[in-house]
């Protein structure tokens, strides 16, 4: 067979094998081995390594037309003297000894190039005839073209595999996605749904395929009219319930058209969570406000208790209540009633309850029952002491002491502000407790004070109080340049009365005389028991003539007294002088005592006086 025919036959066979996607070494063997039967042929491919350097991958080896089979671990050895120039695109012709092949006369290296890129190298060792020498160029060119085509085909196949893998991965991700994914065509009709969308919209893919997307989602407008991006929309479920959704719109190219992809997230759980969080936040705010109010109430109650304990009398108590009660229950009107006998007298009032009314204790349900009373509106059991112009929640709390009820705290809260009355009940109970303790302390203090200044037998002021009062009145008389008088009275023949009738009768005589003295003087005069059967009366800012009238009235009133049928008389000594003439109280008492002694000496039951001007 002529050389051209052999070339065409080899080319045709190699081309057929390449198109049939046979192994590439078979393709190259069919091309090189028949045409170069006396040569050793090695074809290698240049492959970049991970480190950026070129590595050689064998595409096939033939010796004398027979393929050479190498073990996988054997590396391909290509002489550097051949590969260096070939990588630069140069052909190489060297003697065998130059490359370490002494049994070969000539070694040729041909770069396999396409468009200036070196894809591989063909190394041919051995003798070549003239025809074989001439065929090398198109052999090398054909091998380079098929190697390039093989690479391109491998790249396309790899790209298709990667694309298919990416599509499969994306499809799996969409199918397993927790959010609903819907794909629709340009006409807005559903083309695909993932399982999450089927669950969300309550319909399978086959039942909604080709259905308008807005009908599936239960929204008013077609999603094809929405702009790309995020949208908050509200649809309806198949049962007609509202379906809040967070929809994200994307346009995805699909060949010559664009499909619209919706990623939809069900917002019902998030909104429920948001509503629950908002409710919790509101509850927390309410609790914080309640704690703030309780803290303010406790602070005010603490201050109220401190001021009440510092009060000297009920007037101080009323002043403290006026200061604190209006601030304890905001928006309320109220009053404090003092309980005296069977009456309630209003002492403090604020808001619509200002006034000074007087009621019987039976007008209050709280005092009747001895516990807190709450009236919800006009139709409830409203106490009679409540003002007519007050409407709303009414709370009455009795103020109790060990001696019984001492007062009443009453408030009315307007309807828009009023609750169930528990808060007002708690506050007013705390006020009543503190107020009851303060009033009990005042009563105890007053009782102790009276016991310290009163004579237990007659109820008159004792000598200690007399001395303190006379000291004060003497200072006043000196400052005002007024007269000051003192009466000394002594029960006549008291020892005989005591010895004849006993001490009980004597005590009764002293009480009777004390009552007569108290009745015979003015309200500003101070009657005291001086000691034994002697009494003293301090007459502030009293002229001598008035003092004489009072002294005579005292003597006359006492002379009409009797005990166990035995009449009682008193002797009276009077001393009067302007304050500037009195050295001290002892001197004034000395003058009164001298006058009393004179009355005794002159027959008793008479008035004697000492005056200094």
Structural notes for this entry:
The protein has helices at 3-19, 24-32, 80-87, 130-176, 195-201, 205-208, 213-217, 268-309, 314-328, 365-369, 422-453, 463-480, 494-501, 503-520, 544-559, 585-601; strands at 40-48, 54-63, 66-67, 92-95, 106-114, 117-125, 180-184, 190-193, 229-236, 242-254, 257-266, 333-340, 343-350, 358-360, 373-376, 393-401, 404-413, 483-491, 526-531, 534-539, 561-563, 566-568, 570-578, 607-612. The radius of gyration is 63 Å and the shape is rod-shaped. Helix 8 (268-309) runs parallel beside helix 11. The longest helix is centred in the first third of the chain and has 47 residues, at 130-176. Strand 10 and strand 11 (257-266) form a beta hairpin. The relative contact order is 0.04. The strands form five sheets. A six-stranded antiparallel sheet has the order 3-2-1-6-5-4, sandwiched between helices. Strands 14-13-12-17-16-15 form a six-stranded antiparallel sheet. A five-stranded antiparallel sheet has the order 8-7-11-10-9. The mean pLDDT is 83. The protein contains 16 helices and 24 strands. By secondary structure, it is of the alpha+beta class. It starts with a helix and ends with a strand.
